[in-house]
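Predict the 3D structure for this chain.
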Amino acid sequence: PGVTVQPRFGAEEARLSIRGSGAQRTFHGRGLKLMQDGVPLNLADGSFDFQAVEPLTARYIEVWRGANAVQYGAGTLGGAVNFVSPNGYNSDGLALRAEAGSFGYRRGLASTGGVNGGFDHYLSLSAFAQDGFRAHARQDTQRAFANLGYALADDVETRFYVGAVKSRSELPGSLTWAQLQADPQQANPGNMTNDNRRDIDWLRLSNKTVLAQGSERYELFVFANAKKLFHPIFQVLDQRNRDVGAELRFVSDAPVDGRKNRVVVGLAPGRGHTDEDRFANVGGQRGARTNQSEQDAKRLAFYVENQ
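Done. Predicted structure below.
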């Protein structure tokens, strides 16, 4: 309840809203914190892209609405969503999945996992494509995700994650009421002329190390993102983004005066840099340059919570 996920033009890019937060974003989500195994997927400026997630590989999904999410920092007050990944201990040795449907819909997933001594691993490869109900609405996405864990000691585990995404999305655009009545499958004529689309190449590396001692747990996350966006719309937006960050968390479940108690303390710095070029849109290709900029974002979150 209170959580809405609405695909954009049938694409995997979706509007995510929790209790109204993020409802105004039709793309490039904000106001919420997206995580994979507790490691943030948001960039330093607070934004996130749903294409970075393969829901089919999640063991389960945690949703923290509103202020319930302050245990992960108060930088995104709308809430948080955590996609919990399989690992070598709880995944199938080999899993294959295939789907097909109308309007050229097809999706496939292959995954494997296992344990070898102190190491465990999980790997998934997936592909999605559809022609779409409307013209100029083709979607095409391939993803690869893997994690490798190692037990450094009985109470210390480190896990490395890698993710790669190639996403191509044609954007059919909005229609007037008259256009909809005349032909609901048509694309907006301007979107066709300018070949509007949103193409993303995304690479992510991260590490999560956990030290658990009795009722206390120390967690250290480090991560780096590289993202390329080619986005012909009213102009051609061409962006190259580099993002790095870390997070250190302390969690204690030690009782106080015989009562249950939980303390969370965290520190999360991050920074990102984007090189952006803008060009005149000539049939979806770069024309004359209209603008060039460098954009920097820095984030520092410190939080303490006691339940």
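The helical segments are 177-182, 189-193.
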